[in-house]
Design a protein that fits this description.
The structure is a homodimer.
Chain A (H helix, E strand, L loop, with lengths): L6 E6 L3 H12 L1 H8 L3 E7 L15 E2 L2 H5 L6 E4 L7 H10 L3 E4 L2 H17 L4 E2 L11 H7 L5 E7 L2 H13 L3 H10 L8 H4 L2 H15 L9 E2 L7 H9 L2 E11 L6 E11 L11 E8 L3 E8 L3 H21 L21 E11 L4 H11 L4 E9 L2 E8 L2 E2 H12 L4 E10 L3
Parallel strand pairs in A: 1-2, 1-4, 2-3, 4-5, 5-6, 8-10, 10-17
Antiparallel strand pairs in A: 7-9, 7-11, 9-10, 11-12, 13-15, 13-16, 13-17, 14-15
Helix pairs in contact in A: 1-12, 4-5, 5-10, 7-8, 13-14
Chain lengths: ~425, ~425
């Protein structure tokens, strides 16, 4: 069964992930050959800084001319682990034009241009795989695309950013505030010097767009994803969550509407009951909870980032793409036949936890309750606490649309007796 | 892309799983066609009792002659959900001989005859898929075989039997004894009238054999799996586990030896720390924890049985096999190139929790400790409790081989001062 001509792989980028991919291709060469049915050979590594010493990488393979590398014409697989939009996009497109299949770990690019890249792969009869783009080592794209291909997925609820989960877990377990927990994450290397992409939810939003598209067999653009960061989550929010038997997670939530005719995708911090499997996901781990008609509730858990875990996912894709090359077949490509509209955030329906600072005098609760009722938002429970003329009201609602809740909050702010809206947080996973 | 000739599927068995498969094939026909690239048509259903009313199944499709059905010669896929060894094995073999690919949910058959069935599939150039055979709806075979194809799996630790997990979870949460918890499981339909296959670990052992083979790219026969049931787990064991910050689960454990040159597979009850992700798997849910070189720790969680969840896995396989048929390709078959020996249980290394009933007099601990030392089993902690001339010793060991522990226990039983060995339980997941 084993053929002798090796399959040729080029690596674009040789940072934390790329160097691990190269290392495993060398150290596990025999296993990879046995699993693929032919040896794989690393024939080029495109880097920005050619002078940097890269242990275990033959210096003769290193080049700064990534474009020339992908144009060789004899490549079977191009592995893109550069990240960002350009030059990654141009290089991937050129790779397809010159007959290579592509394995990418680039969530931003796939979220933004996945449809066009899939079209380019189709045009040239090649594969585009990107298991590593969502939740690192956790098999997620393949289970959603293949294992659940005979099922109907209704909801994907995930912790898909390790940095923010580390910060929130720290706040939960120590009572620390956001800044203190962020500082610790930075010191330990879990957060980058500029943590914006993580803490503002951009990274999670890209993953949500990819997951929603695959789960619902439709196209979900990055712009379709409602995004709220977690920089305003406070120690007081965690205290409130604890009182409700909840913790707080930054969640990526992709849902099919009850009538099945539209979908939504969003990223925001939310309270989640401690009994929910996602509540127990600690530190920088990721986990994605999937609800479908027939399978019911599934969860996939593991390290969502890091060189070796991401390399594991990349190598799984390399093996798959190589097998396809040998058999002359192609893996499942984009499946967007359902072409469902993406509804705006206002139509999302969930529950809310709202903390209000109010005047400590009779009739306030009645006023507040009236505002909720006028906007069609049904109250589940209210807790009132008063001290020295100051008081707080904590309202937990039944399920209501985001638009109705927004209208309610706007009206509450106009009440003389409401001094401020201390926090609004969605409650998920019930 | 859509071709009009439908792919033809025959169903062998129409019980809880088969009827769900048929139902979903009808209700989701359009989605399945879009995802496969061609419509799929159910052309025959082999049953034992043809007169039973089967809602949603065209009576004209029903036959009692399964052999004639698989010999039609125009089938693309045969779905085997009969269970047991025969006639399932003969029907699958005949299906391959007549040009069909096979999707099976039959753990016992795959565990016993997987190698021969894969060989038959190879001989006829057809696919054999069986995602549903292990842990129901949870994608596990595909992630191990494909997503982790570029990684080196070292350990698989799983709760793969829902009945026993329900019973143990009930004992843990209520303090009930085994019989009481089993009675409740039976009353609620989680346990069969004869629960032997579940509670004695036969079902889990078949799954362990399949998982070990796929994870380590080697053949592991059912006979290679060391198996202990959970009927002797007591409320006292749970009390001991709680004192250690543990719970008790029936685990399927597949391990690669530290030197990589051999593997082991076993099923037995074990203590597991409450902080381990498997400890939180409640009720009849299943979960499988996978440790690999690059990916690190992954967990896959979901419903391990039931008609609809199992049907979800079967349908995912039907879609994959149909796609392969259309493209003329085959999915990854058996991968057993590593050909690693399976070591006997005596070579398994783990920790142990041992409860001894001993005479309440001076020197007993010294005697007991000497026996452990003589057998090379290092003690981690000992707790001694005495009352009215009776005493108990609880010993927790460091890691030791099963053979060394066995020798230790045998010698302990011979001590005059040891009145009995109340329980021995392995401690895993640390």
């Amino acid at each position: 069964m084993m053929r002798t001509r090796p399959l040729k792989v080029a690596l674009l980028g040789c940072g934390v992930v790329g160097s691990e991919v190269a290392r495993i291709m060398t150290t596990h060469a025999d296993d990879l050959a046995a699993r693929i049915g032919a040896p794989v050979e690393l024939v080029g590594v495109a880097v920005r800084r050619p002078d940097k010493v890269r242990e275990g990488i033959d210096p003769d393979l290193v080049t700064t001319d990534a474009t020339a590398l992908v144009k060789r014409g004899d490549l079977d697989v191009v592995v893109e682990v550069i990240g960002g939009i350009e030059p990654a996009r141009a290089l991937i497109t050129t790779a397809f034009e010159h007959g290579a299949s592509v394995v990418s770990a680039n969530k931003a690019l796939i979220a933004q241009d996945g449809a066009a890249l899939h079209a380019a792969a189709d045009e040239h009869g090649r594969d585009l795989y990107y298991e590593a783009a969502v939740a690192g080592a956790i098999p997620l794209i393949r289970p959603l695309r293949e294992s659940l291909a005979g099922d109907k997925v209704n909801r994907v609820l995930g912790i898909v950013n390790g940095t923010t989960n580390f910060i929130l877990d720290k706040m939960d377990s120590t009572g620390a505030g956001y800044q203190e927990a962020l500082d610790e994450a930075t010191a330990l290397g879990y957060a980058e010097a500029d943590p914006t992409a993580d803490v503002e939810g951009f990274d999670a939003a890209a993953k949500a767009a990819i997951l929603a598209g695959i789960a619902f067999h439709t196209r979900v653009r990055l712009d379709d994803v409602h995004r709220e960061g977690m920089t305003e989550v406070t120690a007081a929010d965690f205290a409130s969550a604890k009182e409700m038997g909840c913790t707080i997670k930054l969640l990526a939530i992709c849902e099919r509407a009850a009538d099945g005719a539209s979908v939504t995708a969003r990223v925001h911090p939310a309270m989640i009951p401690l009994g929910h499997p996602l509540a127990g996901v600690r530190g920088a781990y990721n986990a994605v909870f999937v609800e479908s008609d027939a399978a019911g509730q599934l969860m996939f858990y593991g390290p969502g980032a890091g060189g070796a875990p991401t390399a594991s996912a990349v190598l799984g894709d390399i093996v798959a793409v190589c097998r396809n090359r040998l058999s002359g077949a192609r893996g499942p490509g984009e499946s967007a036949y359902a072409a469902l509209p993406v509804s705006p955030m206002g139509e999302v329906v969930t529950r809310y936890h709202i903390s209000l600072d109010v005047a400590d005098k009779p009739g306030v609760l009645a006023q507040v309750a009236t505002v909720f009722a006028e906007h069609g938002v049904s109250i589940d429970t209210v807790r009132q606490q008063g001290k020295d003329g100051e008081a707080s009201l904590v309202v937990i609602t039944h399920r209501a649309s985001d638009a109705a809740l927004g209208g309610t909050v706007e009206a509450l702010r106009k009440l003389d007796t409401v001094r401020g809206v201390a926090s609004i947080m969605r409650v998920e996973g019930e």
